[in-house]
Write a structure and sequence with these properties.
2 domains; 6 strands; 16% strand; Double Stranded RNA Binding Domain; alpha/beta
Length: 177
């Protein structure tokens, strides 16, 4: 059973979902994969995991790195889990590339290469925005494309963390400001 609650953030409404293990979803209203993986039947209820997630978000949106982590429950394929584990290792205030994540996975598997596009697909299916920091991943050419919550939010989060660089650019097809 999933439980849900809403959080009002500086970038808009966020839907939070948890199960008995921890937070399973953090989705921005209107994002590409909104409520992806949410049970068809769920109960509006502020669980302990959701309360802790809201406290984490309060700290994060004050421009500080939270020094605690609410319980989370990452639900996905083995490959997605591997990618998400690497995302969680990206330090606050820094970025990495899809290519670098692909290189790390290839190295861990003892293979020559891994598709950065496959990594990008897994990154896009991350249900735990912010706490599993997919916004910290950029393309090798410094493009900020590829954020399900919207490029404008990705820019906001990178600036909030002090990770935004002048050399980043937004592709012309983007709707970012």
């Amino acid at each position: 059973m999933h439980y849900t609650s809403f959080y009002q953030s500086p970038v808009g409404e966020i839907l939070l979902a948890s199960d008995d293990v921890g937070v399973v979803g953090i989705w921005f209203k209107g994002e590409k994969y909104y409520a992806y993986c949410l049970d068809k039947e769920y109960e509006p209820k502020e669980t302990q995991s959701i309360r802790e997630m809201k406290r984490w978000l309060d700290v994060y949106f004050q421009g500080k790195q939270p020094d605690f982590e609410p319980p989370i429950h990452m639900i996905g394929t083995a490959f997605q889990q591997e990618v998400w584990h690497i995302l969680r290792e990206i330090p606050y205030g820094t970025t990495t590339t899809y290519k670098e994540i692909a290189r790390k996975i290839a190295q861990s598997k003892g293979i020559e290469s891994m598709s950065a596009q496959a990594v990008g697909t897994a990154v896009g299916k991350n249900n735990l925005n912010l706490i599993v920091p997919c916004h910290r991943v950029v393309a090798s050419n410094n493009s900020l494309a590829g954020y399900a919550g919207g490029i404008d939010k990705k820019i906001t989060f990178l600036k909030l963390e002090g990770a935004f660089k002048d050399e980043y650019f937004v592709p012309k097809h983007s709707t970012a400001p």
